[in-house]
Amino acid sequence: SVAATEDAAEPEPAAAAAEPEPVAEPVPLDCTTGELLDRIDAWSVDCVALWLENLGFDDLKAAFMGNKVDGPALKLFTMEKLAEDYGVSDEQQRKKIYYNLKDILRKDNSSGNTNHYTQMLMWVLPFGAIYYYLSLKYEKQIAKLQKRYKKWQDAKNPPKPYEPVAYSDGTNEWTTGTNSDLGGEKLTPAEKKAKKAARRAEKEADKKDKDDKKDDKKKD
Question: Does this entry carry the keyword Membrane (predicted)?
Fold first, then answer.
């Protein structure tokens, strides 16, 4: 019939194209690059995966994470284990993983993977050497600057003039004693001795008065 002929003439619809499979998004790792500076014994499974990612072996992350390979387990890896258990058939790739692992173990065994004091010294020592060199080279200039600064400080805050101690007999330390030869009264040895005794007695009397006043205050 005509209807049957028309149905036969119509082309069959093309088979629906297969939908592309959704690409799985990478799972974020619970580890930071800073944690890789810790000793390997402290590495978690995610840290081992991050280490592999940094080496360029993203395809091995799933296998390592599936077997829960953490830092202590990674220490026991050999090139044979990488080939037999994880299918790393390429010898150069096995060497890259294995030798990087050995470097980390060597650092941990010698001084630790993070020797913060050593790192600090490595930063400080060059600056200390530069400072020492400059201080030797410009020692005279630095001394001159220090003198200028001291003069500026003295001019800004001049020291108070010294006031000589006055004695009860009208003399002071500038006209008696060691400076009596600068114009003071010339005294005989006996007179000097008598004056010293008088000053000593005066000091003792002053001290006694002060002690008596303290005792009176305590009694009050």
Answer: yes
Rounded to a whole number, what is the distance in angstroms from the first to the last CA of the chain? 142
User: What per-residue confidence (pLDDT) applies to 90?
Assistant: 85
Report pTM.
0.40
d(CA 113, CA 110): 9
Evaluate if residue 129 carries a pLDDT over 60.
yes
Q: Per this entry, what is the length of the chain?
A: 220
The residues near 29 (Cβ < 8 Å, ≥ 6 apart) are 46, 47, 49, 50, 53
With CA atoms as reference, report the closest residue to 45 among 29, 57, 26: 29
- Please report how the helices 116-137 and 139-156 are oriented relative to each other, as an axis angle in degrees rounded to 10: 80
> Are 176 and 195 a contacting pair, CB within 8 Å?
yes
